[in-house]
Amino acid sequence: MIEIERRINAPTTTVFSYFTDSSLYSRWMGVEAQIDARPGGIYRVLVPQGTHARGTFSEVDPPNRLVFTWGWEGSVEVPPGSSRVEITLTPDGDGTILRLVHSGLPNAGSISGHTEGWERYLDRLGTVTAGGDPGADMV
Q: Is position 93 within any domain?
């Protein structure tokens, strides 16, 4: 299981919107996003390598919590819906404590690769929510 906690220098409502609005999402992760943030709604993000991360939202509690399934289209190891991502947002003064838990990954290699990815993307989220430009998403 992956657990990452970050302080983001933006209000909780702002951070939440970067997880629930397709055009905002693709400013920090991926090159294209389809986000339908409601229970049963789609989560689909095209990453620079040409692969789609895909899942379905199971919980949406604005602006505090999001839960969606996760996986890679065409993957046998981590297929769509095979793991779970939980995002919890807690106000902290004029900022937000973001806690990400990604569970259900099949092995240490997958956990390591996803940890590296989430760390990088949460850095980009922190930049964009503070009004900065994280640059194009390239690996």
A: yes
Whether 124 maps to a domain, the answer reads: yes
Q: Which domain holds residue 40?
A: 2-129
Q: What are phi and psi of 100, to 5 degrees?
A: -115, 130
- pTM of the shown model: 0.94
Mean pLDDT on 36-56: 94
Q: CB-based contacts of 117: which residues, under 8 Å, 6+ apart?
A: none
d(CA 14, CA 73): 29
Which pLDDT belongs to residue 48? Answer: 85
How far is residue 100 from each of residues 20, 68, 133, measured CA to CA in Å? 15, 11, 22
User: What's the full length of the chain, in residues?
Assistant: 139
């609005």: which residue's tokens? 21
pLDDT digits (tens, 9 = 90+) for 100-130: 999 999 999 999 999 999 999 999 999 999 9
Q: Which residue has the tokens 């040409």?
A: 50
126: nearest Cα among 39, 6, 5: 6
